[in-house]
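Below is one such record:
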Amino acid sequence: MGTYVDIDGHATWVEERGSGEETVLLLHGGLSDSSLLLDSMGETNLKTIAGTVDFTKPVVPHITKTPLVGGQWVDSQKWDVEFKIVTNTEFPQIPTDGKLQPMNA
């Protein structure tokens, strides 16, 4: 779900996507020429904490796919609950630190 926020006097649409552990924000900072924004997006290719964001070779224009890891909130001795990475098939650079637990465990 998105919302408008005020950034430097401009009403800016902020759209959150992702699991909550990694959130991708799409910002339109008051640009009146949407083709300028789309052209800039189309030239973007960068490595981020969530993987590579590459709009230069899209399957669908202005859409990019980032690799996902699977996580699960589990009981913890240190905290009430703790987020564990349980699968990293698409992004092995992020190590797993837990095993998938049944919901009733």
In short: Residues 19-26 have pLDDT under 50 and may be disordered. The radius of gyration is 18 Å.
